[in-house]
Each structure stands twice: as structure tokens, then as C-alpha cells.
């Protein structure tokens, strides 16, 4: 935790946390030990851990139906639908994004990082991985109902950060906006 605390410093919590974004290039040294394409490939190969809750695919801001990239497989819990490698690869080749929720559960270095972040922020933290292709967006303008620490590990990404923010958003119909309304309000 000391390492994270030193990297963030008191000024981060005083001047940025909950107020605005902070861009810190080279924030993590040796990040290839936390996440890389090889580590991602290893995690993805554990097909029995993925399901429709923690393995999501999106293409051009639309969620893809889990049935379109899964198939029935037999595992220790019986028959379950799991992501199908060939179907996933086909969708990725067309520009689809992969979203892996709670990925820290499957990588000790990520788990340590998330644990350190939880201690530092005194809050629950979870690691989600977004693997996207060039010229295709998983999500349009949106806001999260929680604080986000985005750590970029590989490739390039254009981040659009908007001036308008939703004050104290909650999971309520009032905040469920259409894509057009979110773009207009952004």
C-alpha cells in the first residue's frame, strides 16, 4: 500500500479525487507483471470461469447477446454456457470489445493492486478489463455510479472527458438516459 500511497500522494486526494480527472503517464512501473496480452490470453483460456455476468461483448455501443458468442459446455458444475473461442474471435475481428468484470479474482498481481487500492481509498474496489479494437467504441458518453481509476496497459485509446458531470448519480430511472440524451448532455 505504501507504494500506491506514495504514487497518489496527499495532493491527489486533496485536489483531484471526486473533483476532476488526473492523467499520470507511467504511473505503474513494471505493469507488464500486472496485465499484458500474454496475461490476458492466459486468463481468457480459463473458460470455466467466464459466464454471461463477467464476460460481456459490445460492438459499436451495443451489447451483444451472450448466446451469440457462447456455446454449451460441460464442466464440474454440469452443463453451462461459456464463451466460445471461435465466436469470440470472429466478433473481435469485426471490432467487438470484450469486457471482463471482477478480473482481479483471476490474477494475483491484479488482486494485490486492487487490495492496495481498497486500503488506500477505504472503499470496495473491483478490476474490470476492457479490450477494444481501433475505430470501435464499446460505450458512448456515459457516467459511472462509482469512482473510476482507469489504467491503460496496452495500445492506444482516445479518452473523451466531458465538462458536465452528473451530481451524485444513483441507480434510478431518473439517471437512465438514452444514448442520444447522454450525448446531448455530455
What's the layout of helices and strands?
Blueprint: H1 2-15, H2 37-44, E1 55-59, E2 62-63, E3 70-75, E4 78-83, H3 85-93, E5 97-100, H4 108-121, E6 129-131, H5 179-185
Antiparallel strand pairs: 1-2, 1-5, 3-4, 5-6
Provide a compact summary of the structure.
This protein has 186 residues and is α+β, with helices and mostly antiparallel strands. The chain is 28% helix and 14% strand.
Describe the structure.
The protein has 186 residues and is of the alpha+beta class. It has one domain (2-185). Helix content is 28%, strand content 14%. The protein contains 5 helices and 6 strands, in the order ααββββαβαβα. It has helices spanning 2-15, 37-44, 85-93, 108-121, 179-185, and strands spanning 55-59, 62-63, 70-75, 78-83, 97-100, 129-131. A 4-stranded antiparallel beta sheet has the order 2-1-5-6, covered by helices on one side. It has a two-stranded antiparallel ribbon with strand order 3-4. The longest helix has 14 residues, at 2-15. The chain starts with a helix and ends with a helix.
